[in-house]
Design brief:
- By secondary structure, the protein is an alpha+beta fold.
- It is 51% helix and 14% strand.
- It contains 17 helices and 13 strands.
- Helix 2 packs parallel to helix 3 (105-122).
């Protein structure tokens, strides 16, 4: 049976309290008591009287933390006293599980069912399953389950079609809870220059997939032959939205749930909201993210807005984030801190990236110290990163060269390629040192009996193979960067041709330097089925690195005559 030890899921429970931080802390304290769980974000809202919490970790640990949080919320939140702008049905209104890595959606569903069963049976809170965990198609949509809200649930729960999946009687104090498994959802609010909820709703109905009810010329709802309302679909697929007024900010917002950012990306939602606001005589002034957002969503937004300006997208990750934040107005209501709002940054192990976070001086001093790491492998990767960076620089300068405006996209594509090569090789700077440390750790394992000796040897072999693969990957990436250097020497900004040449020299040093690390680490495993083909390919790349660099050199020298 799969143990899920290395699997990661995210859980985003929404609690019906956003004003009393002492209550919120009692709930989050329960989460932080559970080993194997990281509390990434706590995002309270005063007007909505709701707090969105984000935690990640091993699936077993996450559902334990979620259970303890739901239990505590049921103790400290009284739904009989609750008022807020956001629709809600319980103290813990909704608690979705999201697969991140090492686990499928189907497996995540089983964990959702385990959690829901425990909440319903042990806490006596009526619990519904939704999205991928739903027990029936009509229960997939959260809005349909939550319809009627807390005030209507005492009656709703008695209807056979709305019998809870777990738990039986209505819990007057805690209300009801929805638990399920879903794809990553981006909770996103767009700010308007109006206080009108009706106008905000009009835009929400324009953009959301469900759209609005069709009406006749007298404003009466049109129904089909079965007596059901007829709906006019909205513009954006996988988008849910409503309008509301936020007294805390004194503006109306379009509150949006983006359930599939690949079908409808964040920047598409924003631009469409802007278009519909303008058509209705309103203006979008900015937006805000509730909870965390995937890095990909922000980077794609940054690239989108740069393309609209006909500017190169081959810029740093931090620059793309800056462009996205300013273009979407994510800092209008509060500062936007990428380290706190982007999920990958919150999960990042800073200890595994300590070298590339150093200053140039500190990195050189660390290399020169008595420690054997960082060594040649890390330096080779850094040389490769610098070579790709130079090629990227030439591409970016070319995309902005006066008189070359029509070629901005051509050079933008080269810059994007170079930026990715540079980023990947920067990561290898630390990976090479980490690989060396893994070998040292394996050699430190006990060897007092045959079983321990076998375990130790297997660990040493596995760590050594990884220490071969890392510099081999450096070779691959640096070898690819020759093409970038040559292209920039041939067609790039002629004022920067020498920079393309230096980039090729760096690529050559990276390939040959990484090759030395592949060979020395492979000495005792030359015939291993994983190692043998890598060594053969590494030899080929090393043998042709000189000629690749000379091709670029010839172009550079020809341009400089």
């Amino acid at each position: 049976m799969k143990d899920f030890k290395n699997a990661i899921i995210e859980c985003v429970p929404n609690f019906s309290e956003g004003r009393d931080m002492s209550i919120i802390k009692q709930i989050t304290d329960e989460i932080e008591k559970v080993e194997g769980v990281s509390l990434l974000d706590v995002d309270p809202g005063k007007a909505t009287n709701r707090t969105v919490v984000t935690l990640v970790g091993n699936p077993h640990a996450v559902i334990e933390a979620a259970y303890q949080a739901i239990k505590k919320a049921g103790e400290v939140i009284d739904m009989r006293q609750h008022k807020g702008e956001h629709p809600r049905m319980g103290a813990t209104d909704v608690c979705p599980l999201i697969p991140i890595s090492g686990i499928t959606m189907e497996e995540t569903v089983e964990f959702a069912k385990m959690l829901a069963k425990r909440v319903g049976e042990e806490l006596n809170i009526p619990t519904y399953l939704y999205e991928y965990a739903a027990s029936a198609d009509y229960r997939r949509n959260l809005a349909d389950i939550r319809s009627g809200e807390y005030e209507g649930f005492a009656a709703k729960i008695t209807k056979p079609e709305w019998k809870p999946d777990y738990g039986t009687s209505f819990n007057e104090k805690s209300g009801a809870t929805v638990i399920g498994a879903r794809d990553f959802l981006i909770a996103y609010n767009v700010n308007l220059n109006t206080t009108s909820t009706r106008r905000a709703n009009a835009i929400a109905f324009d953009i959301r997939e469900k759209g609005r009810q069709k009406t006749d010329e007298k404003g009466k709802a049109v129904k089909d032959e079965n007596g059901e309302p007829v709906w006019i679909p909205g513009l954006l697929k996988d988008v849910k939205a409503i309008g509301w007024f936020i007294e805390e900010y004194g503006v109306a917002q379009i509150s949006i749930n983006l359930t599939n950012m690949h079908t409808t990306p964040l920047h598409k939602v924003f631009d469409t909201a802007c278009e519909r606001a303008t058509a209705r005589g309103l203006r979008v002034t900015g937006s805000e993210l509730v909870g965390l957002v995937p890095l990909e969503a922000i980077l794609e937004a940054g690239k989108y807005f740069l393309r609209k300006q006909q500017r190169s997208v081959g810029v740093s990750e931090s620059e793309l984030i800056k462009i996205a934040v300013k273009s979407l107005g994510l800092d209008e209501l509060a500062p936007f801190d990428p380290q706190k709002k982007i999920i990958e940054y919150r999960m990042r192990d800073t200890n595994s990236k300590k070298l590339i976070g150093m200053t140039l001086t500190k990195f050189a001093e660390e290399t020169a110290s008595e420690s054997p790491a960082p060594g040649g492998g890390s330096i080779a990767a850094y040389c490769g990163a610098l070579g790709a960076a130079l090629g990227t620089m030439v591409a970016n300068l070319s995309s902005h060269k006066k008189g070359w405006d029509a070629r901005w996209e051509e050079f933008s594509n080269y810059a994007a390629q170079g930026q990715q090569l540079m980023t990947d090789m920067l990561n290898l700077v630390d990976e090479d040192t980490n690989a060396f440390n893994q070998i040292m750790a394996a050699f430190g394992l006990p060897k007092t009996n045959d079983e321990e000796k076998a375990t130790r040897k297997a660990a040493i072999d596995a760590a050594t193979i990884n220490a071969i693969k890392v510099p081999y990957r450096t070779m691959e990436l640096a070898y690819q960067s020759f093409d970038l250097a040559k292209a920039m020497a041939e067609i790039g900004n002629p004022n920067s041709v020498s920079d393309a040449g230096v980039g090729a020299l760096c690529a050559r040093a990276a390939v040959k330097g990484a090759y030395l690390n592949v060979i020395i680490n492979a000495q005792d495993l030359k015939e291993h089925p994983e190692v043998k083909p890598l060594v053969a390919k590494a030899q080929d790349m090393n043998a042709s690195a000189d000629s690749k660099e000379q091709e670029v050199w010839a172009v550079v020298m020809g341009k400089m005559k």
